[in-house]
Specification:
The chain is an all-alpha fold. The protein has helices at 3-26, 28-34, 51-73, 78-100, 108-127; strands at 36-37, 40-41.
């Protein structure tokens, strides 16, 4: 895996985690009512507001952001980058599965956006697990 691709994947994962984590922790009611933003709202359909759950979600995303930012700073540490990718997959795959099983509560556009956004997180995490390309002794 090319270092630039790892940096982009880590950067996007960190940005998404910071966006969600800060919002959910600092303003849980607003996050619950308005996530993902841009005039859309995906959480009220899933059940009543719960401050504890919202703040825990924010804290988890902030923890993922910290791990991801550390990996970005040490992007050549393959073990750390792969560990970060694995941690994101442990969260993102069940998250995607849950939402694909509950798409019926959304309109078509929000169904597509849910699947696309959550699938992108899985793809980005998977990219972090791809082995690095080694250059041959002849520089190839």
């Amino acid at each position: 895996m090319n270092t630039r691709i790892r940096c982009v994947a880590l950067g996007l994962l960190a940005a998404s985690a910071l966006f969600t984590g800060i919002w959910a922790y600092a303003a849980p009611v607003n996050w619950y009512a308005n996530f993902p933003g841009l005039g859309r709202s995906w959480l009220p359909q899933l059940g009543p507001y719960n401050e504890h759950l919202a703040k825990d979600t924010g804290a988890m995303f902030l923890a993922m952001a910290v791990l991801t930012i550390i990996s970005l700073r040490h992007v050549r540490d393959v073990r750390l980058v792969r560990t970060t990718g694995a941690a994101w997959l442990v969260f993102s795959v069940p998250h995607l599965v849950f939402h694909t099983r509950h798409l019926d509560m959304y309109g078509k556009e929000d169904q597509v956006l849910n699947v696309v956004v959550l699938s992108v997180l899985v793809l980005l995490a998977t990219l972090l697990l791809v082995p690095s390309r080694r250059r041959s002794a002849q520089g190839g």
